[in-house]
Design a protein that fits this description.
8 helices; alpha/beta; two-stranded antiparallel ribbon
């Protein structure tokens, strides 16, 4: 079981379009989850929900989803603003680090940053890179005005509580001076990362499609329709990654709480990319057999 969260309807729809056999699951507190399987990977069960914008709601609903379903991983999928000129509209970013960048202390001389940061779990990052290298995740996607399939990049993402659409604002200057390795900016990943951290460091993966350059032209790129391909590209990568991360655990019964997570008794490396639907098999058909923990799978 994998949980996928989105902030916007357009992001939710992009993931939902890649699911089949969907049934609605209602949490006792009212949150609605679409529970189904991935079109291309029927062995992978996904619970999809809409959080709305902001890190607080993302954290609250991620916590709720983990308690309800005990997933192997939680993913946040959607669009983001680019902080790098070399990123193309429609490119996909996988966050290898998430900054909660707006923490700090205000003094007479200005803001003294006190950020929080979470790195992506190593095994999840390794599998995400395998999915990216395989290249099969983008099959069937149109090259929206860019002449080629969308590219996948790994890098830090900055998550705050504002929509950034300026290169001259105080927020833009803060990011440039204190978080200059961040490649994209959005509003939910810090909440997701915190929820993962508080639940036994469950892998919490952010996948974002670039829909604007966060530099004053967001209204124009939105009017051009770039949120649609950006969300679609992110969803395509996310479902391929979900299949690779899935441990085969089913969803909790509707209306029942999932069993509490327990620490693994065997800390030896485990190949979570297994069976026909797993990325090891996909890679094996392209670059030879994948290797995990020193053993061929």
């Amino acid at each position: 079981m994998i949980v996928i969260l989105t902030a916007l309807e357009i992001e939710h729809g992009a993931v939902r379009a890649r699911m089949t056999g969907v049934e609605q699951h209602s949490h006792p507190a009212g949150t609605l989850f679409d529970v189904g399987t991935i079109d291309e990977r029927p062995e992978c069960t996904v619970a999809l929900a809409l959080t709305g914008m902001g890190n607080m709601t993302a954290a609250a609903l991620a916590e709720r989803a983990v308690a309800q379903f005990s997933p192997a991983a939680i993913l946040f999928v959607g669009v983001a603003g680019s902080l790098r000129e070399w990123l193309r509209l429609g490119d996909v970013i996988v966050a290898d680090k998430v900054y909660a960048y707006q923490g700090g202390r205000i003094v007479d001389s200005g803001l003294l940053s006190r950020p929080r940061a979470w790195e992506l779990a190593h095994r999840a990052e390794q599998i995400a890179r395998l999915v990216s290298r395989a290249g099969t995740w983008s099959g069937g996607l149109p090259a929206e005005g860019q002449g080629s399939a969308p590219r996948v990049h790994f890098g830090p993402i900055a998550a705050g509580e504002v929509v950034l659409d300026s290169q001259l604002s105080d927020v833009a200057k803060l990011l440039h001076h204190n978080y200059n390795d961040a490649v994209a900016v959005e509003m939910e990943s810090a909440g997701l990362a915190l929820a993962g951290h508080l639940n036994g460091n469950i892998p919490a993966v952010t996948i974002r499609g670039i829909s604007d350059h966060a530099g004053g032209e967001k209204d124009f790129t939105d009017a051009e329709g770039w949120q649609t391909p950006a969300a679609r590209n992110a969803a395509a990568f996310a479902v391929s990654l979900a299949a690779a991360l899935d441990d085969g655990t089913g969803a909790a019964e509707p209306g029942s709480a999932a069993p509490p997570a327990t620490a693994p008794t065997n800390t030896a490396p485990k190949n979570v990319a297994k069976d026909n639907a797993r990325v090891g098999n996909q890679i094996g058909t392209i670059n030879g057999p994948a290797m995990f923990g020193g053993a061929q799978q």
